[in-house]
């Protein structure tokens, strides 16, 4: 049965979206318009996980957790949402809700719905239920009173249970949705996107929205047109080739992580630490690069792998190397009508080793203070090839070409000493709330020492916690 275009399926029930005066978040709509108050507001910034819900898009059966505080209502129109009320009730609780009670995994209870939604998402996935997978699943959920040990025990005890959503209703796709003063335009392919670009002058692109939705005001004083990129089929493709992987610019960080896991396991940890599953399921590769943050976790990796970016706009396609993408603090080469349509990531030379490290105040769910990526080849303890890139040390993510060139053909210990003694000539960190200039310099020096230890011990350091 087909239902109306301005409908969202919530806990298997069709809810028509009417009389919304302003462009609001999914969280506010659930709580204020539908009285589904089990979904909580904590930080309203995607850090605490109290607002976690499960979304299933396009009848895929892929149930993924997202932060409802970071998603605007227009983005999820036509989607299927499950809240804590849709899992179970006091008369018929979900097995994980029972497990939380039996394992004493809840005290004040404010954070509990978010933890259960994250736990159910994991239980419904194809992942093995281990300490590592549970820790990752709940890395975006904060508990202030119970502590994580009973929560982990509760999820483990419910490992045999799954939930399914058999929504036989279908929703007619609406490519023009207006909520308040905001119109959401949803092209399904690049041809439709070009038609919008030819016809509309004032607009803004919206991918996952984990950054942009924090900046946009709830009440818009003028009409906004947002071109949503999430439904464009070409932007969601992942193509595995012999020498590289090609990602559409709209591929989520979570899908990026799973795609590189078999061939570039060195990247897994830093991608997991990019953000919680809720953030990784919403944020995109292209969106992360387009923010042009000087501390972007992905950019240093792409720089040392000499990645290419596909650009699409009103005038068609072009390709540039990522080293030519950044232009200054929060600035890049894209014109207003251009997006990143693809990211081509070559595999590292089999003779090379790839390292990627991130230092932050918290291990999980935190922005980098500094990050470092290294693509290196050594022969008989002599550096033969080297590419170094760093984040958090300049106005843009920086490829340290000159320093790399000066280290090549030096013995490892000599090259590391040279890098430590001369790194200040090649990076210009500043002092801010995340760390002082001195700390950032010393941190980079420490990462060079870490590189030396890894190579001397012939060790692939996949975790910053190894040291």
Question: What do these coordinates show?
Answer:
It is built from 15 helices and 22 strands. With 467 residues, it is α+β, with helices and mostly antiparallel strands. Among the domains are: 180 residues, Beta-grasp domain (Ubiquitin-like (UB roll)), CATH 3.10.20; 116 residues, Enolase-like, domain 1 (2-Layer Sandwich), CATH 3.30.390.50. The strands form 6 sheets. The protein has a 5-stranded mixed beta sheet. A 5-stranded antiparallel beta sheet has the order 12-13-18-14-15. α14 runs antiparallel to α15. It is globular. The protein starts with a strand and ends in an 11-residue tail after the last helix. The model has no long low-confidence stretch (mean pLDDT 90).
Largest sheet: 5 strands, mixed
How much of the residues is beta strand, in percent? 15-25%
Task: Give the overall form.
Answer: globular
Q: CATH homologous superfamily of the domain at 1-180 - what is it?
A: Beta-grasp domain
Strand order of the largest sheet: 3-2-6-4-5
**Do you know the CATH architecture of the domain at 1-180?**
Roll
- Determine the number of helices (DSSP H or I, runs of at least 4 residues): 15
Tell me briefly what this model is:
With 467 residues, this protein is an alpha+beta fold.
Please give a handful of descriptors for the protein shown:
single chain; 467 residues; alpha+beta; Ubiquitin-like (UB roll); Enolase-like, domain 1; five-stranded mixed sheet; five-stranded antiparallel sheet; 22 strands; 22% strand
